[in-house]
Amino acid sequence: MTSEPDYSKDVVRDLELFIGKLREMCVARMDKATANILQESDKYMTTEASKSSKKSEGDDKAGETKKVIKLEHHQSDIKVGLWVNLFKKSFKNLPLEFPSLGITVTVPKVFQNLHVAIRATHFPYGQISASRWSRSDLVLGGVFQLDILTLPPVAKQVKGWIMRQITETAADVQKNTYPIGSNLGQINMVAAQIKCSMRLPKGLILPEDPKVAWFHPLDNRWTTESIFDVDWHPDTRELRFNTVTVGSIAVVQDRLADVCYKEWSLAPVMPKDGGEEVRLTLKTKRFDVVIAAVGTKCRLIEPQIEALAELREQDMAPGDLLNKLQAAGLNILPDDEDAAAAKYDGSEVAGVTLKNQDIESKLCEELAILATSFDFRSSRWNNSIGSGRCCIQAKETDAFTGGSDLVDYTMCMVELDSESQSAKDAAENTSVCVNGGLKCLLVSGGEGPASRAFDPDILPGTSSEVYLQTCLDNIACGETIARVNASDGILSSTVRSLLQLTRPFSFS
After folding, report:
1. Per mean pLDDT, which range of 46-60, 254-268, 373-387 is the poorest?
2. Which pairs from 283-291 meet CB under 8 Å and 24+ separation?
3. Where are the beta strands (DSSP E) in 217-316?
4. Looking at per-residue confidence, does 424 or 452 come out higher?
5. How much is the average pLDDT of 251-265?
6. Which superkingdom heads the taxonomic lineage of this protein's source (predicted)?
7. Burial classification of residue 240, based on how many CB atoms lie within 10 Å of its CB (0-12 exposed, 13-18 middle, 19 or more buried)
């Protein structure tokens, strides 16, 4: 049996930092390879038809050609195009097309006498260390990196010998600001605009007017100040924009666009093959997200939008699915640092109440076990009762009896013992502690629309318990409990991971 994945904050952060270092190493290797090409760029010279020359009627001669140094390559979704301006040219706006990459960079007239190279790179990920990004931004479709590189001195041929001067550019590239000579991070609004066009990958949830931003290298933030004339064509996935800065450019959106959850529910369904299936539903500000868990895998059921069509056909581990959703623009992977900025739909004030870590862990563990026999859903009071308490609604499922709304939900509460009424009533020198300081109980709640406050009074005939399942024995029949005891532990592990990652108990 495989070990449980560790989703603790420290482990996740360490892995993210390690991945960031690997990506930075890849960029460093790419820079050194580019420097080697530029040192001997004359070896890569080819000819191509001049777009400005047209074949006249009756003329059998081929169109004019010109010498160019232009390279393009793509591998593992990383695309690199390089143009070297080794010779002075006369042009007004020169389009540098890299057809196999789906990238075009049109450089203005100011480049015609510059001894530089233009490198256009599209990374399928953010090659900037994630720790430098503003937490409010989510990058979609990877990062477009536009660099202006200084060229080494031109090689000279003397009596059959080729002489190349070795400078610091032979070992590594020298990147320039734009306009050339401007200060790092400076935005010159009157600079000649560089026109860019790129084909974004499939499977992105983009609005009609996507936000294209440049990463400010000093302020460590994404800004739209230097980007103009954004034009998105969803049918061809072509994104066009103009820029007066070079460096990292990306489509970004609010990282918390789908956090917090308006509602959530967890319930079993009757699978077609007779096995066990549990579905988690998260109602966000934009979408109703439904994820089915079967065995060790999860599958996206909703939202039914075209951008996620391919993803809905794939079965994968919970973490893989949620990461792919995040990359597509649907982020339901909140963490502690998101709590201060997260805002409920319709709320004017940001901030959510993070539940005690032990409470979250206990609910993830117990609901994962009980989810094959009970329906669970969120409570409107959950965020208002503090970090030491969490309330949810539960009832016996009707998934196996044809479906019915005749059974009402019962309010369940898990609380720190220090928050309990028994602890408050106890003598000052008395310690009341169960299950490591946690207790479970059924309470009145007051979920109905007429209720104006949460009612924590324990239901008559019930008592606080160590386990939530023991509490639910009061509202469950023998068949329901038997189904819980016979449920697949593998499925429980999958559901637990799903709950640990999406964190509905804190962000709802």
Report:
1. 46-60
2. 284/257, 284/258, 284/259, 284/330, 284/332, 285/257, 285/258, 285/345, 286/257, 286/258, 286/330, 287/258, 287/330, 289/258, 289/325, 289/330, 289/332, 291/321, 291/498
3. 221-223, 227-233, 238-243, 247-254, 263-269, 277-283, 288-294, 297-302
4. 452
5. 93
6. Eukaryota
7. middle
Q: How big is the CA angle at 76 (ends 2 and 123), to the nearest 5 degrees?
A: 105
Q: What is the 3-state secondary structure (H, E, C) of 142-181?
A: EEEEEEEEECCCCCEEECCEEECCCCHHHCCCCEECCCCC
Structure tokens at 27: 């960029």
The answer to whether 246 and 195 are in contact (CB under 8 A) is: no
User: For residue 182, what are its two tokens?
Assistant: 């401007």
Q: How far apart are CA 119 and CA 66, in angstroms?
A: 20
pLDDT-above-90 percentage for the chain = 58
Q: Where are the beta strands (DSSP E) in 4-77?
A: 46-49, 65-68, 70-75
Q: Per mean pLDDT, which range of 146-155, 265-274, 315-324 is the poorest? A: 265-274
Domains of the chain: 21-48+64-254 (2.60.220.50), 263-502 (no CATH)
Token pair listed for 473: 């024995």
How many of the other CB atoms lie within 10 Å of CB of 127?
18
Contact 268, 277 (CB under 8 A): yes
Length of the chain: 508
Q: Which of 17-31, 247-261, 412-426, 481-495 shows the lowest per-residue confidence on average (mean pLDDT)?
A: 412-426
Number of Cβ atoms within 10 Å of the Cβ of 253: 20
409 contacts 394 by C-beta, under 8 angstroms: yes
- Separation in Å, CA 151 to CA 164, 226, 377: 12, 26, 62
Question: Alpha-carbon Rg of the chain, whole angstroms?
Answer: 30
Q: What are the tokens at 402?
A: 């044809």
Return the amino acid letter for 497: S
CA–CA gap between residue 134 and residue 255 (Å, rounded):
10
The 10 Å Cβ neighbour count of residue 450 is: 5
- Helix/strand/coil (H/E/C) assignment for every residue in 175-226: EECCCCCCCCCCCCCCCCCEEEEEECCCCCCCCCCCEEEEEECCCCEEECCC
Q: What is the pTM of this model?
A: 0.86
The span from the CA of 272 to the CA of 217, in Å, is 53
Q: If we measure between CA atoms, which residue out of 283, 364, 375 comes closest to residue 330?
A: 283
